[in-house]
Amino acid sequence: MTALVPPEGQAREVDRVVTSALGYAARGWPVLPLHSITSGGACTCGSLDCTGPGKHPRTPNGLKDASADPAAIRSWWARWPQANVGIVTGTPSGLVVLDVDPRHGGDESLDELEYRFRKLPETVEVLTGGGGRHFYFAHPGDTLVRNATTVGGLPGLDLRGDGGYVVAPPSTHVSGRRYEWERSSDPEELALAPFPATMLQGLSNPTWGARQRGAGPDDAARIPEGERNVTLTSLAGTMRRRGMTEDEIGAALLVANAARCEPRLAEDEVRRIAASISHKEPGPQRESQATQLVRLAEDTALWHAPNGEAYATVPVVRETITHFETHAVKSTGMRRWLQHRYFLAQRRAASAQAVQDALGVLEGKARFEGAEHLVSVRVAEGADGSIYVHLADTEWSVVRIAPIGWVVLSSDEVPTEIRFRRPSGMLALPRPVPGGDLRELRRFANLPDDDQLVQS
Asked: What average pLDDT score do residues 225-243 get?
């Protein structure tokens, strides 16, 4: 259930929703108002049998009413201030959205889909209120991409294309949670990746959709031209995951080719598919990318601030010298550090989903297993009364100022209770050097005459 929000808070939320809707429209993404969730956790449509609370259109004509006109958008939210936001997918917006629903096996299905074909490119991503993900891709433009209730015949993977829409941030889910852009992959920071060609090849073939809707066994057995490579590659991926060898996969594919492909693929082409898939690790021995990423972060210090925000202090090597940086676990800096470490270990890029899953695990470890520390931006006070100033240079050096003088510390020399973070706009301070006379600065500083200046 959603919590009751004071009137001033409601006004801010309405402004946030309207601003988001206008922003989507400015991108050329037509929007429409959707029903919302009441304070009692019900849909504003009032139906006790509503199957999509907070997800269906408020306007009489549904998708036909969608618009990018700012005047229309302001009028809708003046009429329905609490309305959720829907973004039209397909040709009108240039969007195709892959919906991953973990409640129906979507995480496992996405892993299977990527194993069969190829990893999804990094693209714009939404974390849904129901715990799922929406991956936004650029519409191919010259090809109709229809909605699909399964992708590759795998449960928990839906596609929203022409004739569809998605619930967009900052809409509220029936759980009470918000839809939100994943921190390092929102449309303000990341370009849309093209819709994957291998997925498009399967979806664009009219017989593919018919089989998913339950066509007869004779129709399902045939593999028409245009789907032969995709289907045989998928079959090979499934067999490899079960530990079959290249010879075993090749023999099975040749049988399937002879019995089901119309017309048949050349035997050499079938054997190339088997050889390509056989280079992958078999399923029983295969460790997920997310698990590998978590293991690669085992030498990081995971902790949390008093407000619960999760942080990681990570080792960074520059020119054979190791220093330590602190990043919020869900920040772009931490994501890039983890991606870089994975690439150094595997010589290939990790998928955006795997990185997100790993960061979720690390966030949990930081919050529930890590120690609590204050986090400072530029200046912190130590337990002994010393003042610590973060220089924010590439080595994350810190100046310790004590009554007897000052000293520059490397990041590994800073006391453990002192934790600095560095916002993206924070500039480096010049590194101090001994010598000189601080009294020369007195005429530039508004200090009482009896203040003591420390110098070393």
From this structure: 78
Q: Measuring CA to CA, which residue among 117, 79, 63 is closest to residue 240?
A: 117
Cis? peptide before 263, omega within 30° of 0: yes
Phi and psi dihedrals of 345, rounded to 5?
A: -80, -35
SS3 of the chain: helix, strand, coil, percent, to 5 = 35, 20, 45
- Cis before 170 (ω within 30): yes
Of 268, 249, 262, residue with least CA distance to 223:
262
Cα gap 138→195, rounded to integer Å: 6
> For residue 294, which amino acid is it?
V
pTM of the predicted structure, to 2 decimals: 0.50
| Residue in 122, 155, 147 with CA at minimum distance from that of residue 136 | 122
pLDDT for res 281: 67
Sign, CA torsion 406/410/412/417: positive
Confidence of residue 207 (pLDDT cuts 50, 70, 90): very low
Candidates 64, 76, 6; CA nearest to 35 is 76
Percent of the chain exceeding pLDDT 70 equals 86
Beta carbons of 34 and 85 less than 8 angstroms apart: yes
Burial of residue 453, with CB atoms counted within 10 A of its CB: 0-12 exposed, 13-18 middle, 19 or more buried = exposed
Distance set, CA 17 to CA 28, 38, 128 (Å): 17, 16, 16
User: pLDDT for 368-380, tens place per residue?
Assistant: 899 999 999 899 9
Sign of CA dihedral 162, 32, 71, 23: negative
Q: What is the DSSP letter of 65?
A: G
Q: Label the pairing between strands 223-224 and 165-168.
A: unpaired
217's tokens: 């066994």
Query: Given this model, what pLDDT does residue 92 score?
Result: 92
Pairwise CA distance, residues 49 & 38, whole Å: 15
C-beta of residue 280 within 8 angstroms of C-beta of residue 238: no
Contact 77/148 with Cβ under 8 angstroms? no
The whole-angstrom separation of Cα 156 and Cα 144 is 22
